[in-house]
Amino acid sequence: TPRVFSGIQPTNHLQLGNYLGAVKRFVQMQDEGMETIYCIVDLHAITASFQEPAKLRHATRELAAAYIASGLDPAKSILFNQSQVPQHTELGWIFNCVARMGWMNRMTQFKDKAGKNAEKASLGLYAYPSLMAADILAYHATHVPVGEDQKQHVELTRDIAAKFNHDYGVEFFPETQPIIEGAATRVMSLRDGTKKMSKSDPSDASRINLTDDADTIAKKIRKAKTDPEPLPETTDGLADRPEARNLVNIYAALAGTTRDAVIAEYGGAQFGTFKPALAELAVEKLAPISTEMSRLMDDPAEIDRILGEGAERAANVAEPIIAKTYDIVGFVRSR
Ligand code: ATP
Ligand code: MG
């Protein structure tokens, strides 16, 4: 039976790309009645740069609140933070010994995040995709809803599963399928149409945060980088206009419609007309979520309770899978 797993790092406030590319899809899959497991991947959050402990704790609870405010129901989905389920780390180590250096060297996210000076990057950042494979395969998950940028990591997960199965002569880990769907699988920075929108981008103006108020959202969209031309009359006209294409994609995803439909309505319009319409739509869709988030954040103890309960349920699923893995590998288990 299909089982869905995905995660988000508590590195900062959730940004619009996370919502449109990931969370919205998480909620749909839950509501379609699939078995869904959604994680706050705090172990991954400390790989790229030092996280101030109080901020990490706050971001973890805020991400839980964002999930729930977006429609994730802890009674239907398993919702938890990664570090409370040690099976992730246990399987991650085994996968560190299955994955090859050459495979990791091809990971574009490592190159992006390590920057020019890879010598200064943490070992954890390098091993990140191997831990991500463990996150998924500790549950024998088959479907992984993610944004476009995570496709390579999900493919690596398949390679790790295949090599493990081959090396040990078993049919144990399933093939995982990345689910990359919708109008906004790669939302771009508002300051640079060639760079993906990211929570951890140093420029706050590059993204819309789920915690931004209406004025901030309107201001960021008004200041978003664009070319001086009006919107084209057909979607083909967006081909070499990354900034315009991005704003049209965002509009389509927020409205739950297609790019063609947006161009049918706004083709020929100036940004002076389109941007305020986009800002209004964004506020209309995001304000209820951020209001509900701040309400939930008033009771952090309740959030912790939900995460603890989710972690217990997650561990119940992962524990027998890890026990079987240890058995396959040949580790003596005598207690
Ligand atoms: P960081 O900068 O810390 O890596 P991030 O914004 O990239 O943060 P992640 O926690 O790495 O967020 O990713 C969470 C999910 O959001 C993943 O499924 C990822 O593919 C998706 N995602 C991230 N950025 C975008 C984006 N710009 N457009 C669409 N999906 C995105
Ligand atoms: Mg990321």
TrEMBL record:
Q: What is its EC number?
A: 6.1.1.2
Reactions this protein catalyses: tRNA(Trp) + L-tryptophan + ATP = L-tryptophyl-tRNA(Trp) + AMP + diphosphate + H(+)
- Keyword entries, A-Z: Aminoacyl-tRNA synthetase, ATP-binding, Cytoplasm, Ligase, Nucleotide-binding, Protein biosynthesis
Q: Where in the cell is it found?
A: Cytoplasm
The record's principal subcellular location, in a coarse class, is cytoplasm
Give residues annotated as binding ATP.
Answer: Q9, P10, T11, G17, N18, G147, E148, D149, V187, K196, M197, S198, K199, S200
Residue ranges for motif 'KMSKS' region?
Answer: 196-200
Q: Which Pfam families match?
A: tRNA-synt_1b
Q: Which GO terms describe its biological process?
A: tryptophanyl-tRNA aminoacylation
Give binding positions for L-tryptophan: D135
Q: Name one GO molecular function term.
A: ATP binding
InterPro entries, per database record: aa-tRNA-synth_Ic, Rossmann-like_a/b/a_fold, Trp-tRNA-ligase, Trp-tRNA-ligase_bac-type, Trp-tRNA_synthetase
Instruction: Quote the cellular component terms of the Gene Ontology held in the record.
Output: cytosol
- Subunit comment: Homodimer.
What function is annotated for this protein? Catalyzes the attachment of tryptophan to tRNA(Trp).
Q: Which HAMAP family match?
A: Trp_tRNA_synth_B
Q: What family name appears in the similarity comment?
A: Belongs to the class-I aminoacyl-tRNA synthetase family.
- Matches recorded under PANTHER family: TRYPTOPHAN--TRNA LIGASE, MITOCHONDRIAL
Q: What is this protein called?
A: Tryptophan--tRNA ligase
* Species of the source: Pontivivens insulae
